[in-house]
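Students often ask why we bother encoding 3D structure as a string. The short answer is that it lets us treat folding as translation between two languages. Here is a chain of 457 residues written in the first language.
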Amino acid sequence: MDKELTNLSSNKKLRRPNDSLEDDDDVDRISDLPESVLSHILSRLPTTLDAVRTCVLSRKWEKQWKNVYNLRFSDYKVDKSKKKDFAISVQKVLYHFRNSRIQGFMLSINCNQYNPTLVKTWLSAALRSNVQRLCFSHVDDLEFPHYFFECDSLVHLVLELCTFRVPGYFCLANLRVLNFYNVTWQNDDCSASRCFILNFPVLEVFKSYQCRWLNVKMLKILAPLLASFQMVRSFLRCTPGRSEDCEIEICGDNLSYFNFDGFSLENIVLSNPSKVANVCLDVNSMERFIQRGKIGSRALLLLGGLSSVIRCLELSEYVIEALAHAEPPCSLPIFDGLTILKVSSTWSNTLCSGPLMELLNSAPALEKLIFTTLIDDVNYEESNSLPTNFSSNLKVVEFRLFKGRASEIQLVKFLLHNLSILEQLVITKFLGDTKVEVENQLLMLPRSSSRVSIVFL
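And here it is in the second language, the structure alphabet:
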């Protein structure tokens, strides 16, 4: 990097290319900005190495990059032949900040060409600088510094493509936002309980996307201020190669949004569900067919504890089907306060049959029904026995995606015929080039509500 700087000339002013401009327009106004503003500008550049390159602009800019408060390094666009130069540059920049306080540190490593010890050194440098926002992506296994698991300065943490071993207890006292993407956790707890405890006293947002929690029989999250919990396409495993009952326990009094979209539905315990108004449940694996009864009973247990507080509920077709096959059989609870129901079902014959109808009948205050996915083109006969006791308060039906296929038209016809106080039938996004034709067809359908309007957005 130093060699690169010596090969570039230094200019005292930033000049416009047109020499005929008046003197007032030739003034270097950027360099005259306050130091705090310049530091903010340089901290917002894509990478810190971009900020370093500004040192060739003028003498005043030679050391300006050393005042940035966010450090960003990524080798995503670095050629393989220049990976070594990248590592040297990172090392030099971090050396300049060895006694500084860093607000944000982003390190994205997209290959395994670097010495793991060197990468660990970079991460350690950020942690020792009391970093508040850490975003770390690494495609290879890495042994994290032991003090990472007790770092009091972290407020916002994002981990991606990481695989590492962790102690059975993990405490970040000031962490507020936590995002995990494609992370593999290997719990070091060898006791029979296989318990993994996350203690985050001020955490507000927890997201785990496509993560693997290995050697974990119970995941316990101590987070009294947690408001949003999302575990999407993730799974817990106690023993490799075996499907075992695992448990997730969330200890907190502030949870309002709960989203679980896993490869199986774990035993989920919410210590205080009194504020959980928004819930989303899905299962994405073959276990949804093999263990339908178990998934149904767990979903019923979870929803039963939330039935009085849920305002918005989103369920996949697999969870809806599982609810009807719970073992032992059990009736759905009454969702007294549920006003919005989102269904990600693709089967029109499922939508107009038992499981969903039972769910609708269990929501007397329901006002809005949303279909979030396309309805598959299946054989559907209107002569099937269709219940007509929809919720008396249902005023809006929305299709997020619509193609105008026969099964979709039949479903719209069914809804228009049975919903007597319906006010709007909304089609958010139409796929295909027959929108006008389908719109005319829908407008001709008979309806039981005199004030219903069909809206294409």
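Translate back mentally: Residues 1-17, 378-389 have pLDDT under 50 and may be disordered. Keep this in mind for the problem set.
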